[in-house]
Amino acid sequence: MIDQDKCGFCHINGKRGDGQTFGKPMYEHTDWYDTYRHINERKKIRARLVSPETNKPRLHTSIKFRQRFESTSIFKINFCPMCGRRLGKGKKVKENG
Predict the structure, then answer these.
(1) Shortest CA distance to 13 belongs to which of 41, 53, 44, 45?
(2) 21-48: per-residue pLDDT in tens?
(3) Distance, first Cα to last Cα, the chain
(4) What is the pTM of this model?
């Protein structure tokens, strides 16, 4: 099992211009028209965690065909499927005293 403190899949690995954060892709595969030179991308499949450190962590899967989204799925997720770490902001515990 992957160490929860060093898991690149559920810790922030990148950021888009709109402020959305994401982890390293858990699965990424690209089919090319020209397999030798890797030009003219044909189909790209990706699965990664989006906004893992917020209150709404999600698993985002997508299939792009010729630079257009063919299929996209978004699932609410509470734990990292790779290391088992609980996702989202932790609830603060009130201390009596």
Answers:
(1) 53
(2) 888 889 898 888 876 777 777 888 999 9
(3) 39
(4) 0.71
Q: How far apart (Å, rounded) are the C-alpha atoms in residues 96 and 94?
A: 7
Amino acid type, 8: G
Query: Token pair for residue 65?
Result: 């065909």
Place of tokens 């010729």: 66
Q: Report DSSP state, residue 86.
A: B
Whether 50 contacts 44, CB under 8 Å: no
Contact call for residues 82 and 2 (beta carbons, < 8 A): yes
At position 93, the amino acid (one-letter code) is V
Placement of tokens 């290391």 in the chain: 83
In the chain, the amino acid numbered 28 is E
Tell me if 64 sits within 8 A of 70, measured CB to CB: yes
